[in-house]
Amino acid sequence: MDGDGLGVVPAHTYARLRFDDAAEQAVTHLSNVLQWHQGSPYAGQFVSQAEPRAGMGCSPPHIALLSGLQGTGMTARQVTDVLHRLAMQFGPVKGRLLPRCKVTQNGCVLLGVDCPESLRMAQALANMLPGADTYYAQQRPEQQHLTLGRFGGSDSAGFAAWLSESLAGQISMLPQFTGMQVQLSDEARPFPNLPVALTGTGGGGLGNGLGSGGLSLGNGSGLGGGFGSVGGGFDAPIGAPSRSGPIGGGVAPIGGAPPPP
């Protein structure tokens, strides 16, 4: 695509919902803590989405709304105009991350999201952009997710179960967020790809950015805390945890010592 946004949007371009600054910082902090923690069977096996070596374009935290925009045959400018119309229909929307982890076949680490209004936003956008991929617009609420980073180890099932259970007992690590803006993904660059503020009245109102327990922006040495039960799961579970990633009362918190054999 040429740099002035007059060519058809390139392959893999998608529309996304961006968060308030406090929530972006909280999600980034969570992924950094997970990347640099020590003392678990999975230390050194996760890379934050913000890192170039993750191969994810260093994208900021977001929820994907509509993918396959090249199927519309529209230019980046035209799609951005549609985003402006969408933003006039929806105000800022509230949501929260859930302690529900999944690792895809290519290693993408996903966390569950509770944000019904973003699903309605995706459905509205799909109606406005025929020809795009409607995968995200057709998701059930329990399928919504946020990409946190990439797992490079061999035991993805154990890692998913370990992270789910760890976060279930440390809910303050999972921020509430306010979806404030919509934006094309970074594939739309170098076209001026500015976020579009949500200014309508149909959204869920403003949130406070962080979970009720707050998030300590410490030195990232570990998550600490205890463990609770794994809350729910995606509809396509990875499988049972392996011996290298035990869960339950004997699991050490992220950054702590592994359980005795």
Could you explain how this protein is built, in words?
By secondary structure, the chain is of the alpha+beta class. Helices cover 21% and strands 19% of the residues. It has 4 helices and 8 strands, in the order E-H-E-E-H-E-E-H-E-H-E-E. Strand 4 and strand 5 form a beta hairpin. The C terminus is likely disordered.
Q: Keyphrases for this structure?
A:
261 residues, alpha+beta, 4 helices, 19% strand, 21% helix
Terminal-residue CA separation? 55 Å
Number of separate strands = 8
H and E order: EHEEHEEHEHEE
Q: Which radius of gyration do the C-alpha atoms yield? A: 19 Å
Relative helix content: 10-25%
Low-confidence stretches: 203-261
Mean pLDDT: 80
Instruction: Give the CA-based shape.
Output: globular
What structural class do helix, strand and pairing data support? alpha+beta
Beta content = 15-25%
Helical element count? 4
Assembly classification:
single chain
Major sheet description: 8 strands, antiparallel
Brief summary:
The chain is an alpha+beta fold. Helices cover 21% and strands 19% of the residues. Mean pLDDT is 80; it is low at 203-261.
Topology readout:
Blueprint: E1 15-19, H1 21-36, E2 46-48, E3 62-66, H2 76-87, E4 93-103, E5 108-114, H3 116-128, E6 145-151, H4 156-168, E7 176-184, E8 196-197
Antiparallel strand pairs: 1-3, 1-7, 2-6, 4-5, 4-7, 5-6, 7-8
